[in-house]
Amino acid sequence: MQKIYIAGVGQTPVRENWEKSLKELAGDAALLALADANLGYPEGIFVGNMMSGSANHQLQLGALLADWLGMHHREGFGLESACSSGAAAFRAALMAIASGELSSALVIGVEKMTDSPLAEITANLATAADADLEGDFGVSFVALNALIMQRYMYEYGWKTSDFAAFSINAHANAVFNPNARFRKAISLSDYEHTGMVCEPINLLDASPVSDGAAALYLTAAPPTKDRRISVAASSAATDTISLQNRTNSLRLSAAEKSARIAYQQAGITPREIGLFEYHDAFSIMAALSLEAAGFCDPGQAPRLANDGSIALNGRIPVATMGGLKARGHPVGATGLYQLVEVALQLRGETGQTQVEAARWGMAQNIGGSGSNIITHILHQG
Amino acid sequence: MQKIYIAGVGQTPVRENWEKSLKELAGDAALLALADANLGYPEGIFVGNMMSGSANHQLQLGALLADWLGMHHREGFGLESACSSGAAAFRAALMAIASGELSSALVIGVEKMTDSPLAEITANLATAADADLEGDFGVSFVALNALIMQRYMYEYGWKTSDFAAFSINAHANAVFNPNARFRKAISLSDYEHTGMVCEPINLLDASPVSDGAAALYLTAAPPTKDRRISVAASSAATDTISLQNRTNSLRLSAAEKSARIAYQQAGITPREIGLFEYHDAFSIMAALSLEAAGFCDPGQAPRLANDGSIALNGRIPVATMGGLKARGHPVGATGLYQLVEVALQLRGETGQTQVEAARWGMAQNIGGSGSNIITHILHQG
Q1: Of B219, B245, B262, at which residue does a domain stop?
Q2: Do residues A268 and A372 share a domain?
Q3: What ipTM was predicted for this assembly?
């Protein structure tokens, strides 16, 4: 694929936001990205969103936002792949530019979840599972992840407290991110004394239901040198949608495939990755993601979390702005928050959580219980 | 954009289908397209759908169908732009192939509407409108179209019975389409004596809520000569999402733009178009679509309908397999039914409704009340 650049980024604070409609929330992130790029209107809009039809009674987000932003007559579409909808929109925009149909595009991810009662949100999230094989039996998304975590602990001998380090790291980094939902450090004792959500997943293993929007401005023309962040790799792969059909529920085979292809495209190995924005919707997904991306052997991720490897000065910094766990997880926007954060890191603009000398950053966005996984590698220079 | 071919097509009968789940319905159309192409599995899946999250409690259709079809690990996404979601998925797949990321793709459109009570379907359809400016005030989609039709009659002096010819033509053609919802001819008297839905739109002005799925197999490699149907043009444009913000509610400016660009891409004029699968969700949309695509001046479309121009042997045959009106309108699938029908016409496989010597065929898919319009031109040879 031809070289495509990220000329601008924007994001709204992740929180409960009852003052703005979905359109205004997405529009705010888009306006920030447009101002940051300062290149005028792009030729098209790609919107990542999962549940606005149910949760906000609003679909057709492409035309909606083109209209709201004043991008008269420009084309716009919505992309959906559950929690990886954000990265799906990013990948669709990349392909649109590489095809020559567009020379620039705005990618917006938005989700407004907290207007709905919790039972409705849980039901909306469950639409990412197989309705015939999982949804109809009432299984929730946290339950699917709990099954995986239970099996992981049984198979590799870890205990729940071994997972605390993932959340402690995420919260420690979120303290310095003004857009994070939880700007509060947590301790092992907090983790051990919090409430259970679905055994063995406790409250501090789980990312929060949130409202938020993030946006990136993509262009085929190289921006000025200090903003020269390019997309070095883009790769997507699927796995069985239902957990019960997976040969090995402890391996994210779609992540393994998409990361392997991404490394090939970028011409690098995991060793060159300076930071990794992984999809820590639950601690167990953080672990499986690190393993699938080649940072350690299967079953060994809790060791990386506990020996300091995932810290800002460690071998592979993760969740550098709080991750899904502490920045928050507005599902359709998450993939773009990850990419905005990687871009800001490569631009050297993340202040106290800046990873030194990072030239390559990776973001991995997971849809469903591992059924649709999209990996992007960004490059500074 | 590089030349891309339609190597295979598939469609399920449009009807109330309570025997199959959304997945099975979409899968059936996909299997037919795969068998028709006979080229093995393509590299990716693009699914057009509008309301499965609400109506069928099922999202993540890309991974769902890749899994169900046995296309292990191949990438897949959902595309949404309300009633033009089908053409949006087609366009996204074209751009994916033209970008070089994929060499082939399956495009599937599916909608399963009749499981839900009518009030829910009406609410789901209204998510294509602006929730803040239209939806929250309870305006339905038929009401928006009724406002346009009322104004059109006032402005140009037509009466309701002048619109009957659009529906009579669609039903006459549907008689010969085994996949059509209504295989029954209607008369002017039927039209004049049917019930009112929302004045001036009556039951025979409106396309039926339906279940259905259609699929196309796209490939960069030229298929065998008798199947050499290529995509000569693909163009999308948006307009204001809310009707009240439109400068002129009687002009589909997004259709004018996307048709104009499509003709440029194909290097032809409306004169060369052998058949036009237009988006006759309501008779008034049929009229506006013909005008926007350049087949007559604004306000003159009812004349074309009444003077025989839109018949199979007329100047511009439309709705050759029944159109949305009589074939049926499973919203997210409609854009792909249109493209399947154009492809079959260009292959000369439509039997008694075959348009003689057509080498160029056009399909135009409309999202919302005219806010997201996508035009494709196919070419035989």
Answers
A1: B219
A2: yes
A3: 0.97
